[in-house]
UniProtKB/TrEMBL annotation:
PROSITE patterns assigned to the protein according to its UniProt record, in alphabetical order: PROTEIN_KINASE_ATP (PS00107), PROTEIN_KINASE_DOM (PS50011), PROTEIN_KINASE_ST (PS00108)
Record flagged with keyword Transmembrane: yes
Record flagged with keyword Membrane: yes
Entry protein name: Receptor-like protein kinase
Binding-site list for ATP: 249
Pfam family, one: PK_Tyr_Ser-Thr
Record-annotated Protein kinase domain positions: 220-491
UniProt keyword list: ATP-binding, Kinase, Membrane, Nucleotide-binding, Receptor, Serine/threonine-protein kinase, Transferase, Transmembrane, Transmembrane helix
Annotated SUPFAM superfamilies: Protein kinase-like (PK-like)
GO molecular function annotation: ATP binding; protein serine/threonine kinase activity
Residue stretches spanning the membrane: 139-164
Length: 518
């Protein structure tokens, strides 16, 4: 190829690229100009400052004035050549009187406009060629390379933006309510077999080592024994001499015990409510499973009503307050969780009482969300005397099943009797069956009330509470009220100082987004 000053309209241009390394600074400027050329075709590329153009174009003389705008195809060719040069660690060869060693040449031909025929070359070496058959091939190569660069850059930028957006959402979710029970390690990362629990950043459960549990319970000494039920034994624990807790030890239950353990951790790890017991941590030691809760100083409602004291500490106002607290906890599960949660095992032994007799619902091992996808394989569970008739007969489970159990607990509070009592060595009688005929007779109602509260109760309030209990234990589920209606009926009956006129507002909890195993 030879250089000719006089060029006809059919002349072509090509850019010679020599294999020379670029400095870091030049590479940065190189990329800057490349982006400007590719992403903005109308840009007047040749009007960039001379010191920037010198990164990839060496001027062969003094530039007295900026050259005209190069044709679009010429600029595309230049961009393609620049990209190839960059990818091969090369730069565009400068125009020099003596030829420089050339390792690669791309003949990217494009007609020059007539106005530029007479001008001497400024930044690129113009070489006359007559091989028209190379034009299309080289043009395609340049355009393809430039397009690939643009697509790669755009894709990388888009992916980075997506990652950034998701990280912002994750950080935002951490601003939600948190508590001491929610701090620790993600449960799904602790045990590989439990990583099906898709807990979010917020739902964190503290892993407690077995040695700490032994120390806190004095090796599960009998003096710290609080009670038992099902597969569990409950012990009082004191961590570091300051934090008191209740430790539920699960063992010997096989697969049922394991399912209840997983289910309780999964649900209690997400739920936050003043009338639902708080989860503090868990432990897995061999075949034994441990769940650590906040300690409720006054034990269970069952122990208070049917224990040695026979409910002497529970005045009329305190009993109605306990009923109100239970209703608030159930309302949260039924109305403020999405999907709603059915407890399935509401009973007096699962109602825990704090130092001021505030009540909290516990034991969520049998709880399930409404619409549980595998209802056909759901094992019939519950406690005799609290199980709703429709669930016992045909396995039909709804929120109204919990309402029935609540009605039974309400009858316990009113009468101080157990849900099922033996009338003979081989015979038992249900509290509901025994009480229903008398609950509907105002003249008989005062005679069946717990003697402990006989002198402190408000007779008018007694009739109202009895009416609520009767509705809750109806055999037909459709006749039972919603727990929200029950709550509204009880609020006016509780003194202001005990929270009777206060309504706890609850945030909406989406269990469908946070629970995958039910």
């Amino acid at each position: 190829m030879i250089e000719e000053p006089g060029v006809t309209k059919d002349c072509k241009t090509s850019f010679c690229v020599t294999k020379l390394p670029l400095s870091d600074l030049k590479e940065k400027r190189f990329i800057l100009v490349l982006f400007a050329a590719v992403l903005s075709p109308p840009l007047r590329l040749w009007r960039y400052p001379r010191d920037l153009l010198a990164v990839f174009l060496s001027a062969g003389g003094n530039m007295k004035r900026p050259p005209p705008v190069a044709p679009l195809r010429l600029r595309i060719c230049v961009v393609g050549s620049i990209l190839v040069a960059m990818l091969t660690d090369a730069k565009v060869a400068s125009m020099s009187p003596s030829p420089s060693p050339i390792s690669s040449v791309w003949n990217l031909s494009v007609p020059l406009p007539p106005s530029s025929i007479a001008r001497p070359p400024i930044a690129v070496q113009i070489i006359v060629q007559t091989q028209h058959h190379h034009y299309h091939k080289e043009m395609i190569l340049a355009v393809v390379l430039a397009s690939v660069a643009v697509v790669a850059i755009a894709s990388s930028t888009f992916c980075a933006w997506i990652v950034w957006q998701r990280s912002r959402q994750t950080l935002g979710s951490e601003d939600l309510e948190s508590s001491d029970a929610g701090r620790g390690l993600p449960f799904g990362t602790i045990l590989g077999r439990y990583n099906s629990f898709k807990l979010s950043k917020k739902e964190l459960i503290t892993l407690i080592d077995y040695a700490s549990l032994e120390s806190a319970t004095n090796k599960f000494n009998e003096s710290n024994f609080l009670g038992e039920g099902g597969f569990a034994f409950v012990y009082k624990a004191c961590f570091n001499g300051e934090v008191f807790a209740a430790v539920k030890k699960l063992s010997g239950g096989g697969q049922d015990c394991e399912k209840e353990f997983e289910n309780e951790l999964d649900l209690l790890g997400r739920i936050r409510h003043p009338n639902i017991v708080s989860l503090l941590g868990y432990c897995v030691h061999g075949e034994e499973r441990f769940i650590v809760y906040e300690l409720m100083e006054n034990g269970s409602l069952e122990s208070q009503l049917h224990g040695p004291s026979h409910g002497s500490a529970l005045t009329w106002n305190i009993r109605i307050k306990i009923a109100l607290d239970i209703a608030r906890g159930l309302e949260y599960l039924h109305e403020h969780c999405n999907p709603p949660i059915i407890h399935r095992d509401l009973k007096s032994s699962n109602i825990l009482l704090g130092s001021d007799f505030n009540a909290k619902i516990s034991d969520f091992g049998l709880a399930v969300p409404v619409g549980y996808h595998n209802r056909s394989s759901l094992k019939l569970s519950g406690t005799v005397g609290y199980v709703a008739p429709e669930y016992l007969l045909d396995g039909k489970l709804t929120e109204k099943s919990d309402v029935y159990a609540f009605g039974v607990v309400l009858l316990e509070l009113l009468m101080g009797r157990k849900p099922v009592e033996k009338t003979a060595p081989s015979q038992c009688q249900s509290l509901v069956t025994w009480a229903m005929p008398q609950l509907t007779d105002r003249s008989k109602l005062p005679n069946i009330v717990d003697p402990v509260i006989m002198n402190t109760m408000d007779l008018k309030h007694l009739y109202q509470v009895a009416a609520v209990a009767v509705l809750c234990v109806q055999r037909e589920p459709s006749y039972r009220p919603l727990i929200t209606d029950v709550l509204h009926s009880l609020i006016p009956l509780v003194p202001v100082e005990l929270g009777g006129t206060l309504r706890v507002s609850e945030p909406l909890l989406s269990v469908s987004q946070k629970s995958s195993g039910h």
